[in-house]
Structure formats: structure tokens, C-alpha cells
């Protein structure tokens, strides 16, 4: 059977981890953290990180969902080693293992009908007993079943003693074997169950460390039955507590975005911010909060994973994203923001516009927590004259503000060197001559230039818009006030 191993490690001491999502929808943010932990542990130890798509649920698995998972992995920078393994394509191998267990006496044919099993469950429910298969065909002669009767193949699970997992996160976990039933390995139509497929694939892929959510801890004990029956080496388990919402319940749609694509597209977050936040969600390294990818690879170990569920804090994630926006390359940010500006204004930004957007990033970055906020802050650069003022901006041009705006426009007309120092000197002189603070000039000037009450520094705004556009916008508001 070893000849059928898929992507198995050649070195017995080499760490091999895997991420195995089901393609029934988007890449869940909790799944993204699982993938990150697996990726980091593999990279930290110099091992391999593998990707398996568990697409055995044919009714719910879709190509768009597979693409969404791969896209999310690429966005997060979680590259995997070797080819992507698709579980459904390995169904024959799964069945081969089930039949091998049947031949060795570690599994048996069960001819119980759906009606019998439904009646059994009803009896157990009425008696308030755990609902599990009672082993009625475990030691029965298959010849007792009428010829042609459909059957499933069940694991002949151990009934005596205990099963123990020395979990790298949860510690020592013990389950009495009497609590485990004879689970189905092959359905009556010959298709493998999830439990069988996972174990076979992990073995054939050479997986040494199974790092996954602690909602799979119970599954681990059932899967151990297959591993022991086949005489395969047991993987090292690390069951990570789930992510909870602010209310303490398991993270779900009602808490907000749960798909990785929403963090990118709708929330406007950077992948490095999302990864940094997910890393700190249940894992720690001293007091470090801002952790680069290189540091994460160097520091990550399973001992740093906590046993308690973490609570997702969207505000904290946004604040972390603000840090990464300030650190990001201006050209990269401009490329990410471009489509958002184009969509809002229904325009197409040309090469010169891209250059302007890039130049504006230094002034826009300090004020933005998300790409959406960056885009919102950049809109004034591409809006056409005459500008429509929002309500707050309009109030800034009331009273004597227009007269001050006119004096400012006249002063700016005389500037040949359209640079921030020269612009600042001219505007400050207007304020000084009028005997007022700079803010009294800056606010109506901001309203005239951007149509808003808030913007980057007013001298940055003037420099970015340029001489002709700046003077034109100021003139538009003066005319409108006449």
C-alpha cells in the first residue's frame, strides 16, 4: 500500500502539516487562522505545508468555492508545497483501506436497515441514552442477511480500556473506548465517509502534525481507531480553541464578516494585518503585538497556543490595519485604492491619475484605517468642477469666510514655486495680515478645495491638486457666493 502515498515526506523526522478545507463556501476566517498556524509551524521547523480540498460532499462542493479558497490562501501569502490534493479523486484508495480492514477483521459488514437504526435512535432517545450504534452486526454471520441486502462497512472499534491523546495544546486527553461506537467507513453505495477519508489521506500524505480546531478533538479519538487498526503511526495532534465573537459565542455571520474575501473586498484590510491579527488570536510571544512574517516564522511554536477561545475584536483589527497602511509602499496602496475610487466616482483613472494617487498616499495614510478610508480620502483629487460641498463644508463658507477665501486666492495667484513651503508661507501671511489664526483660513480653503470639512493637511492638498486646479476650485466657490 505504501506505493500509493501522496506527497509523503522522505525524511521520517521532517514535519508535515496540512490544511484541509471543505469547498462548500468561502474561506472562513477561522479556517484561515488554522491554515496560518499550520503554515507557520511547517516553515518554522523546515517542514512541509500541504493543501487538501475535502470535496467529498459533491452536492455542496463547488468550483467557485474551491477558487475562493485558493484565492484566499494566495492573498494571505500561505503558499503550499506540492500539488493540491483533492479528496474525492482518492475514493478508490479510501475504499481499498476499508476493505483491507474488513479482511483483517478490524471492520465488518453491517446490514442494519435505515428503519432499524431510526427505531434504535428513538429507543435511546426515550431512555435518555447516548445515541450510538449498538453493534448488532459486529459478531453476526453475514450469511444471516438475505442475499443482495445492502450493507455498510463499519469499524470494529475497541470496547475495553481507554484511548489517550497527548495533545500539544489541550494536554493529556483520555476517552473510555466504551464511549466510541462502530462508525461507518464505507456507505452502502461504496463511497467513503469523512472519517475514513481524512485518516487515509493524512497517512498517505505523510502528515506528522494535525493542527486544527478543537471541535475536531472528539473526531480524533474515532479516527485513532482506524490508525491503530491499520498499524499506522499516530500523528501529533494540536487542537486549537475556536474563535468566538465579542459575545463569547462561536464566530458566525451574525458577528460580522466571516469570509476572508470580505476582509479584503468589503472591509478593505491588508493581508499582513489580517495575518498578524489572526496570529495573535490565540497565540502569543511575550508582549509582541506587531509581528512581521519573518518574526512569526522564527517564533511560532505550538507551546504558545492558549487553551481558551479567543474573542474577535474588529476594532482592534482595524487599528492594526492602520499600522500596516502607514508602513505600506505608496505605489502598492495606490494600486489597491484605484478601483475603489473608480467605482465611487464612476471614472477611469489613467497613468497620470495613478501617479497622483501614489503621490497622495503619504498625506492620506496617517488618517486611514482601511483601504476604503484611503479611497474616501482620495476622492477629492478626481472630482470634477464645480465641486459639490457636503453639509459641513458648506457651513465653513458662510459669513465672512468667502472674503477670506478671495484674499487667499489672490495671494496664491502670485506664487510661481507651487511647493508646500511656498504655499504655507503665503497662506500664513494672509492670516497674519487679517489678524486671525491659520485655522480661520484653512477651514474655508479646505471646503473649497475638497468639498469636505476634513482632509489631509491643507498645504498637501494644494500641492497635490496643483496650481491650475486649486485656483479654479477656489474661484468656483467665490463665484457661487456672489
TrEMBL record:
Q: Where is the Aminoacyl-tRNA synthetase class I anticodon-binding domain?
A: 336-476
**EC number(s) per UniProt?**
6.1.1.17
Q: Which PROSITE patterns does the protein's record reference?
A: AA_TRNA_LIGASE_I (PS00178)
Task: Return the motif ranges for 'KMSKS' region.
Answer: 250-254
Q: Where is the Glutamyl/glutaminyl-tRNA synthetase class Ib catalytic domain?
A: 14-318
UniProt-listed Pfam families: Anticodon_2, tRNA-synt_1c
- Which residue windows are coiled coil? none
Asked if the keyword Secreted belongs to this entry, the reply reads no
So where does ATP get bound?
253
Q: Please report which protein family the annotation says this sequence is part of.
A: Belongs to the class-I aminoacyl-tRNA synthetase family. Glutamate--tRNA ligase type 1 subfamily.
Subunit details for this protein? Monomer.
PANTHER family for the chain: GLUTAMATE--TRNA LIGASE, GLUTAMATE--TRNA LIGASE, MITOCHONDRIAL-RELATED
Its biological purpose is as follows: Catalyzes the attachment of glutamate to tRNA(Glu) in a two-step reaction: glutamate is first activated by ATP to form Glu-AMP and then transferred to the acceptor end of tRNA(Glu).
What HAMAP family does the record tag this protein with?
Glu_tRNA_synth_type1
Q: What is this protein called?
A: Glutamate--tRNA ligase
Provide the species name: Sphingomonas colocasiae
